[in-house]
Amino acid sequence: MTADLRIGVIGLDTSHVPAFARLLNDSSHPHHVPGGRMVAAYPSYSADIASSAGRVDGFISDVTPLGVAMVDSIAALLEQVDAVLLESVDGRRHLPEARPVIAAGKPLYIDKPLAHNYADAAEIARLAREAGCPLFSASSLRYDANIAALRADPTLGAVLGCDAFSPASLEPNNPGFFWYGVHGVETLYTFMGPGCERVMAHHSPDADLVVGYWADGRLGTVRGTRAGEHGYGATVFGAERIGQVQYSQEVPLYAQLLRQIVPFFQTGAAPVPLDETLEMMALMQAAISSQAEGRAVYLAEVRRQAGA
Question: Which end of the chain has fewer CB atoms surrounding its CB within 10 Å, N or C?
Fold first, then answer.
């Protein structure tokens, strides 16, 4: 790898791409992230999702003046880059778009969530492991300045439970928390870590509430909101005190995330273990089944059904 990585992008239908391009390519930006440049992009999108198809042209216009060249295929992209950001907003595209990147062995960051269902997520992980391809996926909320500070605060003590929250708009092709509510799930796991055994989900038009039961007896919840004022944060129940946090609006979330992605591209060491990411995907899939069936669903059921 060169000192200044050549970074490519797949999917130009999310605001993350112009934000990343500015932070990487504009050295005068107050939150510039050094170590790599976004040099090329394959502007794929989903014609059946309005928020995808309707924004891609605008984002192309945003990044082209920053020195990002458009290419007409993933194969052409891979010839020009050292590492790849898979930014497609539609999780259905993640598995097919990840396949050639993994086959080429390029370090791959897949923007949240890893896929639109657990089965695809497990297949992406299997392919990456078999190919020895570095793979990382996370929400920017995991690295928000306020959330990270509370997670590292020794006065909190051992985390006994957590109630996380985030917006959770719905999109039929990426059901449940696989669309936007993943931010809340990532926040929950930032504090709780892995170990969830089963979930019970509750749904209303205005909100979803998922209760997770950890193997060590702890409880964690995620509230996804669709009405009223929205926010991102958590109440964390520590052994020494209760901490409450909302995300920082002063330090750009995407800069915090890029400060994890660039070192990952350089070293191949993912900041979040792949098994933890897969557990989050299983939790979200179990929540969909729980809502549909009106019962607690074990994550092991989800894994068996996917053959994982």
Answer: N
